[in-house]
């Protein structure tokens, strides 16, 4: 029992240190990239017609390490700027799911192959479903009271002009660190909770129980994991350490991926914010899209692993 406790504590500190380092490093890289992309450029890119706009919407979404309450105001900004509806929806789907933090953590902690598969599936789903919602006239489900953009202070919101300012490399690094730390602070609690749960699972949860409920042989493991992620509001930073521990206990990687997508893309706080922009039918469609993406991704992962 004492050995189990020591291993559990060791797991907590090692995984916590790795995740914090990864988060800060990846966030700083993204911050540096975004310093060189003016806001008006982003809007002009997204104004493309048809699948090109959806493709670019998903691509820009993949570069934005936003939490839900930052994604929603930016989505509103796109709507107010007259960006095509399909491009906006592709961005809305991709932004939480293709978060560079998720991709980076999957690549380092599970493998580059896992990160590539995850990116390809979720990217294609973001493009396709954005295009589909545009063609089915989802824009008619927009509410009239969507003009007011409310920020939650998830990151550094200074200097949002259309042109990047000239700065020394040292200043850029300093601003990138500040931006990364500003994004890190609000999720530290979630990260530690996730790692603590993962450590307890790693140390004490019986392997036969996990195999029976969520092993690769259970055909319902993936959709159930996707549904479980919704009410838990599991951020990627929380879900990945939990998922790693569950995988070590026998949970299929597909179920883990479905849990991550369900928690990151269908969190109740995000859905409640979307209800202020869209009518109920559109919110339900977005939930269904994320659920289908989670299930498809989970099943594909189980095929590859």
> Which residue ranges are poorly predicted, with pLDDT under 50 across at least 5 consecutive positions?
145-162
Globally, the shape reads globular
Please give the largest β-sheet. Answer: none
Instruction: Please indicate the percent range of residues in DSSP E strands (runs of 2 or more).
Output: under 5%
Number of helices: 15
Helix proportion range: over 70%
Radius of gyration: 19 Å
Q: State the secondary-structure class.
A: mainly alpha
String of helices and strands: HHHHHHHHHHHHHHH
Number of strands: 0
How confident overall, as mean pLDDT?
Answer: 75
What are the salient characteristics of this protein?
single chain, 305 residues, 74% helix
Description:
With 305 residues, the chain is an all-alpha fold. The chain has one domain (2-148, 169-304). Helix content is 74%, strand content 0%. The chain has helices at 2-34, 39-46, 50-62, 68-80, 85-97, 100-109, 112-135, 169-184, 188-204, 207-214, 221-232, 236-248, 253-265, 268-274, 280-304. The longest helix is centred in the first third of the chain and has 33 residues, at 2-34. It is globular and about 60 Å long.
């Amino acid at each position: 029992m004492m050995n189990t406790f020591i291993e559990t504590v060791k797991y907590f500190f090692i995984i916590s240190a790795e995740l914090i380092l990864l988060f800060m490093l990846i966030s700083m890289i993204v911050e540096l990239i975004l310093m060189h992309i003016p806001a008006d450029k982003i809007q002009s890119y997204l104004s493309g017609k048809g699948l090109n706009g959806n493709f670019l919407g998903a691509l820009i979404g993949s570069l934005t390490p936003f939490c839900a309450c930052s994604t929603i105001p930016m989505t509103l900004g796109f709507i107010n700027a007259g960006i095509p509806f399909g491009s906006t929806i592709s961005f809305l789907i991709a932004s939480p799911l293709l978060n560079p933090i998720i991709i980076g953590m999957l690549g380092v902690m599970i493998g580059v192959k896992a990160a590539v598969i995850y990116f390809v599936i979720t990217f294609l789903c973001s493009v396709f479903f954005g295009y589909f919602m545009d063609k089915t006239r989802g824009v008619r489900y927009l509410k009239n009271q969507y003009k007011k953009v409310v920020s939650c202070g998830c990151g550094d919101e200074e200097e949002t002009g259309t042109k990047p300012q000239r700065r020394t490399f040292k200043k850029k690094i300093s601003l990138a660190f500040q931006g990364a730390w500003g994004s890190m602070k609000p999720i530290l609690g979630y990260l530690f909770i996730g790692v603590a749960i993962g450590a307890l699972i790693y140390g004490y949860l019986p392997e036969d129980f996990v195999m029976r409920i969520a092993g690769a042989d259970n055909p319902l493991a993936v959709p159930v994991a996707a549904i479980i992620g919704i009410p838990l509001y599991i951020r990627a930073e929380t879900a990945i350490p939990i998922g790693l521990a569950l995988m070590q206990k026998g949970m299929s990687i597909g179920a883990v991926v479905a849990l991550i997508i369900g928690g990151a893309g269908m969190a109740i706080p995000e859905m409640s914010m979307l209800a202020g922009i869209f009518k109920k039918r559109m919110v339900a469609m977005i939930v269904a899209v994320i659920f289908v993406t989670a299930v498809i991704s989970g099943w594909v992962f189980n095929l590859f692993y």
